[in-house]
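Recall that a protein's primary structure is simply its ordered list of amino acids. Everything else, from secondary elements to tertiary packing, is in principle encoded there. The following example makes that idea concrete.
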Amino acid sequence: MVNRDIKGMRDVVQNSRLVQPNPEKVRATQLGSMDAFRELLESSWENPAAFWDQVARELHWFEPWTDTMSGDFADFRFFTGGVSNPCYNLLDRLVQAGAGNRTALIWEGEDDRSVFILIRCFWLK
């Protein structure tokens, strides 16, 4: 069973193709280009601690961290000493910034019915 699963995964990888994103949509992103994305990706590989330190500073922290990364696989830690709250970062900040009426989730049923759930709806629950 396991060998068949591995063979299936290999087949998918070998028969896959790279699909480039729409250039107009790429220009509309925060990075603005695939070259900028590749530079960001390479910087994350070259210095992961500095990369994740910078990314984490975009979030709200109730207590700052003292160490961005420590340890090795499989015994490692990120943001030692830091205290954050994913719900606060995902919902509260957006509502406070005036984005509560943006769509958070689009649910599409098998009966072709669609439900659009706003960020504010999740926040209220």
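The longest strand covers residues 67-72. The beta strands are 67-72, 75-80, 103-108, 114-118.
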